[in-house]
User: What shape does this take?
Amino acid sequence: MVSVIYIASTGRSGSTLLERVLSQHPQIWAGGELYLTWYRGFMRNEICSCMVPFNDCEYWQKIKASFLRRVAQKYDIRYINELIYSHIRYRFFYPKFRIKDEILKDLADIFYNLYESILEVSGRNYIIDSSKTPLLLPILAKHKKINLKVIHLIRECEAVAYSWEKRKIKIPGTNRFMPRYNFIKTALVWKLTHKLISKYSKDLNLKTYKLNYLDFVRKPKESLLNLLNHLDIPYDDTFLKIFISSNIVNLNSEYHIISGNPIRFQKKIIKITPDLDWIYKMPKWKKIILKIICKIPI
Ligand SMILES: [Zn+2]
Assistant: This one.
């Protein structure tokens, strides 16, 4: 049995910060957006948060070897990547499009083997997958040996739209930038994503904790302890000691993720504060349009 804490949300909702803090728990390993492992890691050799490429990161190399050993007779990386592209990434706007049972089974098995490899190498009991897409929920819930716990992370639509329009460096010291999206597109994706997460949580009877991002950044310690209690994840003094004060956190455990926000490269001690720039900097007309799109039920 593998225990997976799945962060379900939209991009720019604070999942990288959340998983970094949670991964200070001695039994939790943060994996980042794991559905991109084969594309960004195995195929493109992108840079890990430890600042070396995937193929030079000793943790990922051990995980890769363990994974390939488990699935060698069943799938090759190109096939895995194709499955993820056609049945997860590009299915987003067609969620009702049904995946054939045998493909669903393959996908669940592929993720299960990746999770097992990560837990074997890290020696921990829980893994965080912050893939965020709701479309993975029915796939993971299908596997009898995946004990799935879901964090439904919600950040205000306006803050997410503001962040996607901002110019942001992808990797420190380079001139590579994060992609940017128009606020209307962000609002539509935001709405559909949260609707799907709520629907799957209910229909599949998932153990889900709704976390409001603003509550987390205002009271990190309190909200994380509530979350751990709700998801039945035990913790002791080792985890509590990471909080130097209520919002200053010591981040010093091993952290190796190959995708995510630039905050994945920050180290050691950080102060968690709400980023409310959008309230002052976003034009009023945009806020009104976003409110209309995001608040009206579909
Ligand atoms: Zn690494």
